[in-house]
Every structure is written in structure tokens, then in C-alpha cells.
Design goal:
The protein is α+β, with helices and mostly antiparallel strands and 339 residues long. It contains nine helices and 16 strands. It has two domains: 191 residues, Heat Shock Protein 90; 114 residues, Ribosomal Protein S5, domain 2 (2-Layer Sandwich). Helix 2 packs parallel to helix 6, helix 6 packs antiparallel against helix 7 and helix 8 runs parallel beside helix 9. The structure holds adenosine-5'-diphosphate and magnesium ion.
Length: 339
């Protein structure tokens, strides 16, 4: 008899986990922006070089990390955000899996600088391929700056699989939009190869949508408001003329988190029935608030798929409130898109 099963070394386990969490530069952007939000930042700057293939850097003015925590942050399953399984059904943070930084550090060169508001000195850590090469004190403002360079330097198959800069930048911009729309109160900047792509001042939802999508968007928005026991809905739908043949601008948020949900998407499009030209897709920016124990976020590592307790009721409420909003504005079927 021979025993053949062995525990994988941490750096190998991290690299395997990274396969799920980090598919492309945009995944790094999402994880770092979400960490900055969880840290209570009121201002976040995203700096990207070469569509993230060379650098993804996120600078926040959040609560920072202690020296020890800055090191712990890169351990797998290390998190300050939950403590027990029960917490999974009472989530108030974007993160909770404690996987992102460990995964990113397994497949890139990472420099983390962080300082808490009540300390004089911050800390600076260099780590690559899961190995810490140095940790030194750092003079800096409070908050955290994390720089991720040479993504997939040790996973050539993944590196080769990356798309053109245009496509990867598009994906990054999509992630930036999702986070920025979910958090209009946070000031957000996005610089790519020294070009200022977005400078978003803090504001309300309408202002944030208009700042991102352009001033013409303003007159095309119809407000949606609904409050029931199981869900509170706010946000906007685009007037039918705003509908496009292409995919349209479709944003659904649950408890400040962007999600994809085919069934609820259908509820929204169903409400537009008869108002859209064949093949046109409605635009929407809808924000749902549901009790945190009525939604399961822990279905997939990227957390864009979620499962609700009572999807049928949600469907009915969303469809009715969108229909109501459309009716109130007496949108006529003549107002089709002309482009
Ligand atoms: P998770 O977000 O699921 O907890 P991460 O690997 O993304 O896991 O981060 C690990 C931990 O590092 C977090 O729980 C948090 O305590 C700390 N951390 C990460 N980014 C920041 C940041 N920008 N500011 C302060 N703390 C951070
Ligand atoms: Mg995180």
C-alpha cells in the first residue's frame, strides 16, 4: 500500500484559486476597487497602463492597514470582513472570501503601501509569485495604494490569452462603470496611459449616470421608485427611444453590487413590451435593496451571480414598477430610436 495524496503548497493553491478570481486585468480592477470601497474610501483613483497588462494601480483614502495586516492580507482565506458562516447571510461588504489579494499576488508583481490614519508611518510590501521580498516602513498619506504589474508573468498560457488592448480596456472600463454607478457618493478617477478618462465628483445617482454616459442621457431617464416589504427599488429606466439595437446600457444592482440576472432582466424587458422596435434593447440603471439574508452572494467567486429567496415576487414587483414608471411618463410607441 502506498499513500499518494499530498496537500498542495500554498503558492500552488493560490495559483489555482487565481484561475477563478482573476481572468483578466478587469478582474484585478474589480477586486481592488471593491477593497477600496470596503475600506471606507471617499476618493478612489484607478491608474492603468497598457490596458492593465503593464500596470493596474488603485489609490484610496480609506482606513488603511497595520503592518501585520498588510502581510496577512495576502494569505488565502484571510479577511477582516467575516468571522463565521452566519456572516455569509448578513453581508455588508463587497469582499468576504479573503481570496483576491492572495490570488493576485500569486500571478503578478504586487506593491502594497498602506497607512492607518492614527499612525505616523505606513508600511510598504513587495510580493510576487506569493513570495514577500521586502517589507519596509513608508512615509505616506493615510489610505492604501496597491500596484499590480506584469499580470500573469508566470502563467504564460493566460498571458497569451489576453485580448487586444482595446478589448481589455473596454472590460476595465465596464468594471469601473459598474463600481462607479453603484457608489455615486464616492469621488472616482480613472487614468489610462496618462489620459484622464473619467473624473467623477461625488453626487447622486442621476448625476453619476450623466457624468459617465454623457449629458444627453439626462433627458432620457425616467425615474423608478417602489417600496415593498421584500425590496426597495430606485433608479432609472431609459425612455424607449434610448433603446438600442446593440446591447443597451443595462445595469442592475443589488445592495450596491452589480449583478447579472437573466430572470430579473426579463422582468424589466417584459415591462417594455410593445414600446420597443423589434430587436431593440432597453437601457436601465436599477438599484434594488433587499434584506441581506434574502440573497445569497456566495454562488460564484466573482459574485456577479446571486440567488434570491423569492425570485417570483421580485420579478412581479420589478415588472410592475417599471411598467408604472413608463405609464406615468406616457411614453408613446412612436418615440423609437432613430440611429
Ligand atoms: P476580502 O476583500 O474578501 O476580505 P481580499 O484578499 O480582497 O479579501 O483582502 C484581504 C484583506 O485585506 C481585507 O479583508 C482587508 O482587511 C484588507 N484590505 C485589502 N485591501 C484593502 C484596502 N484598500 N484598504 C484597507 N484594507 C484592505
Ligand atoms: Mg476583496
Amino acid at each position: 500500500m502506498q499513500d499518494v495524496i499530498k496537500l498542495l503548497p500554498d503558492h500552488v493553491a493560490n495559483q489555482i484559486a487565481a484561475g477563478e478570481v482573476v481572468q483578466r486585468p478587469a478582474s484585478v480592477v474589480k477586486e481592488l476597487l471593491e477593497n477600496a470601497i470596503d475600506a471606507g474610501a471617499t476618493e478612489i483613483k484607478l491608474i492603468v497602463k497598457d490596458a492593465g497588462k503593464t500596470l493596474v494601480q488603485v489609490i484610496d483614502n480609506g482606513k488603511g492597514m497595520s503592518m501585520m495586516d498588510a502581510r496577512m492580507a495576502f494569505e488565502r482565506h484571510a479577511t477582516s470582513k467575516i468571522q463565521s458562516a452566519d456572516d455569509l447571510f448578513n453581508l455588508h461588504t463587497k469582499g468576504f472570501r479573503g481570496e483576491a489579494l492572495a490570488s493576485i499576488a500569486a500571478i503578478a508583481h504586487v506593491v502594497l503601501k498602506s497607512k492607518q490614519p492614527d499612525t505616523d508611518l505606513g508600511t510598504e510590501i513587495h510580493i510576487q509569485g506569493s513570495k514577500v521580498s521586502s517589507q519596509e516602513p513608508a512615509v505616506m498619506q493615510h489610505g492604501t495604494t496597491i500596484s499590480v504589474s506584469n499580470l500573469f508573468y508566470n502563467v504564460p498560457a493566460r498571458r497569451k490569452f489576453l485580448k487586444s488592448d482595446n478589448v481589455e480596456l473596454r472590460n476595465i472600463t465596464d468594471e469601473f462603470h459598474r463600481v462607479a454607478l453603484a457608489h455615486p457618493n464616492i469621488t472616482m478617477h480613472f487614468v489610462h496611459n496618462s489620459n484622464d478618462l473619467f473624473n467623477l465628483p461625488s453626487g447622486n445617482k442621476r448625476q453619476r449616470i450623466v457624468n459617465i454616459m454623457g449629458s444627453k442621457t439626462n433627458e432620457k431617464l425616467i425615474a423608478v421608485e417602489e417600496e415593498t416589504e421584500i425590496v426597495t427599488i430606485s433608479g432609472f429606466i431609459g425612455k424607449p427611444e434610448f433603446a438600442r439595437k446593440t446591447k443597451g446600457l443595462q445595469f442592475l444592482f443589488v445592495n450596491d453590487r452589480f449583478i447579472r440576472h437573466n430572470y430579473l432582466h426579463h422582468a424589466i424587458t417584459a415591462a417594455f413590451e410593445g414600446l420597443l422596435k423589434d430587436g431593440a434593447n432597453p437601457s436601465y440603471f436599477l438599484y434594488l435593496k433587499v434584506p441581506s439574508d434574502s440573497v445569497d452572494i456566495n454562488i460564484h467567486p466573482t459574485k456577479t451571480e446571486v440567488k434570491f429567496d423569492d425570485e417570483h415576487s421580485l420579478y412581479a414587483i420589478i415588472r410592475a414598477s417599471v411598467k408604472h414608471a413608463l405609464g406615468q411618463f406616457q411614453v408613446s410607441a412612436i418615440d423609437f430610436e432613430r440611429d
